[in-house]
Amino acid sequence: MSESPSQTPDWIGVDWGTSRLRVFAMRGARCLDTRQSDQGMGKVAAEAFEPALLELIAPWLQAGQVMPVLACGMVGARQGWREAPYRAVPCAPVAAGKAVQVPTRDPRICVRILPGLRQSAPSDVMRGEETQIAGFLAQRPAFNGTILLPGTHCKHVQIEAGQVIGFTTHMTGELFALLAEKSVLRHSIAPHGTDPEAFAAGVAQGLAGGAFAALFALRAEALVADLTPTAARARLSGLLIGAELSQSELQTCVIIGSGDIAQAYQAALAQRGVVAELCDGADLVREGLTAYRLGDQK
Amino acid sequence: MSESPSQTPDWIGVDWGTSRLRVFAMRGARCLDTRQSDQGMGKVAAEAFEPALLELIAPWLQAGQVMPVLACGMVGARQGWREAPYRAVPCAPVAAGKAVQVPTRDPRICVRILPGLRQSAPSDVMRGEETQIAGFLAQRPAFNGTILLPGTHCKHVQIEAGQVIGFTTHMTGELFALLAEKSVLRHSIAPHGTDPEAFAAGVAQGLAGGAFAALFALRAEALVADLTPTAARARLSGLLIGAELSQSELQTCVIIGSGDIAQAYQAALAQRGVVAELCDGADLVREGLTAYRLGDQK
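ok -> structure tokens follow
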């Protein structure tokens, strides 16, 4: 019994971040199958990248055939599988011919990694987000404005005429986790839950430039007033997101993401008078890899 | 052999913070002896406060006599030996009759704890610093202006006519430690050392309101430019201190502290055009306890 050719992948896409590995069995622009593991770049030693990848994609390979594999993300960092040197902005988020080939032992695969982007002044870097952006621009080639990608590190990316012209990374998510879990504030902050009113109050204070000076009040107000742990959590989130958004030029704005965090950014932007569109980012890495793959074949 | 009465303490002062316990054998305003241990309030369980104190002061006690003991600091917190409820500002930093008595088993001691201060809007609290401020004001009763007390949490305290009229706690030192040791920036930050030029650049950016957005550049500039770990450490410190100082009304200003951190604040204030005086804080807690003790006896 053999599968029909239309059910056989002709390339494999790989989204390999710090904490997660996802693979896509692709035929042209069509995704036939997807698998994932927790073998993120952060926990994989130098010699273990190829086995970690093969563990997921082996069912899609055939002896005597070479499968093109296209990866993006932290796998291309200096501490990753093989360094894919950054491309300097301004530039298109991905560009044909720029992927870096990785030597492999298994003859059935030909692996290439897409480079990240860097900016000189002020210094900044990204790895992985450029591919999401390419996926977004494949659907919306005429978009000009700012793309926000919330997460541990939130990127604000300026797009003009299909190019990334500049970007800024904000450590908002990481700061939130450190303050909520490791600082003296942890005694006053709930492990989850939200409170829209407290969040909005935090955003207002953060937008006004007062976030740093307002942090300790989250502890003090729990001691001498009646701030609840849930309200404290929401206000901390608002303070940090407000501080982040106070610093950027934002007019036309799309948030790539989903769930609570994307909605929190949307609400905070509304307080700044910016109507931001939400765009679910779940498939954008795959679509960005596809855009590169199809562009490279032309 | 008996000691001369002038060598015998007639009260004992106690500076009991989160991480350290210091005791002073006092005769009036004169300090005869001092001892310390690492039995800070943070590591002492409820039943262990009295033994931890006696371990240090036992040589100064005599059977059949009751020694007054006056303590300040986190020992008076809810999680301390006994809660000494906050006094509300505006008020003098310490006020006669306000110390809270602690029941003890040993009949040779009579222990009282000075209350900390609280502010309602915005909420803030202090425990221990009020006694340092009382020590400072005992020497400089006519001082009007801002007292800065750098540390893990830096307090900015507004003084008018001998009263604390308001204060703000900035988590600058704690934020610095979290970012330098626990965040992604740790890969780019030296464990010690400084760089005055990088510090000044950070202060300038922090004063201008750009600290949050400039944090990740400390990582990126190490990856794609030539930022050294020592310069990154100094710039992070400058960014956070600059952000802190951008938020306060500061004109007449005294920094209570010593060493590198006090000088860093002095340099940062100079960049804001504020000439701040340095005042070594080493003896101020003892002098504040003395001011209370002598005032209470009147």
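Chain A touches chain B through 45 residues (CB under 8 Å).
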